[in-house]
Structures are given as C-alpha cells and as structure tokens.
Design goal:
By secondary structure, the chain is of the alpha/beta class. It has eight helices and 15 strands. It holds the Pfam family Formyl_trans_N.
Length: 321
C-alpha cells in the first residue's frame, strides 16, 4: 500500500517502522513542528521526524493541518491509507476522505474508554489494572471511529506512565503489523463503539499535578506514578513548589492528624498523613533543586514532624508525631 503516516512522539516511531518493515511505501510523514525543549529551550525535532529522516522519508510539519499546503499535498498523493499514531491534531474532513482505504489510528487505550490525548497517564492515575491499544477507523469525532482490532496490556502496580508507555508502544506496533494485511485485503470487520461506555482522557494540565492530601494515599500514589517521569506531582512547602517523584502508600489506620501533616522524617523518607492512611515520599524535588532521594535532602533540611504540606504549608506546633 501507498501510505501517509502521521505521528509525533516516541509512541509513534515503532508504528512507523512496522509499516515500513511490512513492505509498504510511506509517501509522506506528517508530524508536529520542532518545539523548544529543556531549560535552554533548544529547538528540538519530534521523534517521528528524526526516525523518518533516518529512513530517507519526506517530512512535513504544518502548524495547523486544516487548509495547509500539507493537506493539499496529501490530496495530490492520493494514498491508499493514512495511518496516525499520537499525531496531536484532529484530521479535517477533507483529509479523512482522501485515502481509498480510509484513515486508521493507533490509540493507547481500550476504546471507548479513555478517548483523548492522555489515555496512558490517566489510566494509571485512575487506578486501572488493565489497558491496551485499539486500532480504529478515524471519524469526525474524538476517537469515536469503528474499532478494527484491539490488544489488552496489564498495568503493573509499579508501572509509571513511562514504563506503561513502552509496553503500549510495542503492543501498538505489533498490533498494527498484524492488522495491515486485512486492511489491504479489504476484509476488515470493524465494530462500532458503544458511546454509552465512553470515558475521556483530556490532556494534562498543571492542576492535575497538584497533590490533594485529603485523598487516600493510594489515590495520590497512582497520581504520582501516572505523572512520572514527565511531570510528577507537587505540593507546597514554605510557600514554594515541592515536587514528589516517588512515593508509596503506608497502611496506618485511624489518625487525628490533618491531611498533609509530616508524621516522620527518616532514612526511609518523609511520611505524610493523607485522607486515608499515609504516604511515604521517597524521591522529591524542592524548589530550585534537582530531584533526589528524600533521605539525602533530609540530611541538610529541617523538616520537623508537624510540618504541613499544602498551600502556604510550613511548620506548625502541636501536630501529631
């Protein structure tokens, strides 16, 4: 088949390679523009662009696909199929209607659950124990098209979004390779999604990173690992952001301590009261510093039992120790 591939992050690279390794011709790769990255804001190409150039493939990076020269270029190419994987833009109707075999998407969830841009992170943040990859025909709505194939992937209790990302990346590329022959032979039996079962996974915001100590320790643990290694969770200590990169829930029973109260600070880490049980902070990042083991930071920091994390958090007297 003659294919136009559209994708941006690392998640999409193995899918691009699966298309090529299956012997299909990629006429064009479409990805997002280069973006500033890191503290020095160095202009950095997306992983799909780097992979495409290594394979000698033509690449275009429209800021907005709708009405662009790239959209016109796709119409001129008249590909048999468009394959997308975490491209990051909604395809306009004019593009969806170009390929004779349609447009398919490699989506990192078990549709119709977790439609949207952050399905991997939010599955972990919500405490799910299984997720997967769905290959679907693209439609005008957000991840609403008919499902072609699906594979389940378990979520381990220790998975972060980073480790789950790797599992789903591999699973998605394998599933795509297994699905392409049926698409080429036009023998696909796609299944409509049940919209009544749909849930959504909107892109993450800064507010998603804020720790609410009133929640159970397990919920906060899931939040932090779902946000790691890209963002982590954060609270406030002495008026400054205080990031949490690693933690674990600790059963503690009933406590009169206010949620957010530091119960102890030791070589094991910082034990903090939550709405249910306690949370042991093991890897943290105070404002202006690098991420480090909590035990290392405690060697030079004063964090007495009774300190309260949260808005305006700081030391106070009389809290439970």
């Amino acid at each position: 088949m003659r294919i136009v591939f559209m994708g941006t992050p690392d998640f999409a690279v193995p899918s691009l390679e699966a298309v090529l390794d299956a012997g299909h011709t990629v006429e064009l790769v479409v990805t997002q523009p280069d973006r500033p990255k890191g503290r020095k804001k160095t202009l950095t190409p997306p992983p799909v662009k780097e992979a495409a150039l290594l394979r000698g493939l033509p690449v275009e990076q429209p800021e907005r696909l709708r009405g662009s020269e790239t959209a016109a270029r796709i119409a001129e190419l008249k590909p048999d199929l468009i394959v997308t994987a975490a491209y990051g833009q909604i395809l306009p109707k004019a593009v969806l209607e170009v390929p004779r075999l349609g447009c398919i998407n490699v989506h990192g969830s078990l549709l119709p659950r977790y439609r949207g841009g952050a399905p991997i992170q939010r599955a972990i943040m919500n405490g799910e124990t299984v997720t997967g990859v769905t290959i679907m025909y693209m439609a005008a709505g957000l991840d609403t098209g008919d499902m072609i194939s699906v594979v389940e992937v378990p979520i381990a209790d220790t998975d972060t979004s980073g480790s789950l990302f790797e599992k789903l990346t591999a699973a998605g590329a394998k599933l795509l390779a297994e699905t392409l022959p049926a698409i080429e032979a036009e023998t696909v039996e796609a299944k409509p999604q049940n919209n009544d079962e749909a849930t959504y996974a909107p892109n993450l915001t800064r507010e998603d990173e804020r720790i609410d100590w009133r929640l159970p320790a397990r919920r906060i643990y899931d939040q932090v690992r779902g946000l790691s290694p890209m963002a982590g969770g954060f609270t406030v200590w002495n008026g400054e952001p205080f990031k949490v990169w690693g933690c674990s829930p600790v059963k503690r029973g009933v406590s009169q301590a206010e949620p957010g109260t530091v119960l102890s600070a030791s070589d094991e880490g910082i034990l903090v009261q939550t709405g249910e049980d306690a949370l042991l902070l093991t890897t943290i990042q105070p404002a202006g510093k690098k991420a480090m083991p909590a035990a290392e930071w405690l060697k030079g920091a004063r964090l007495a039992p009774g300190t309260v994390f949260g808005e305006g958090g700081g030391e106070r007297e009389g809290a439970e120790s």
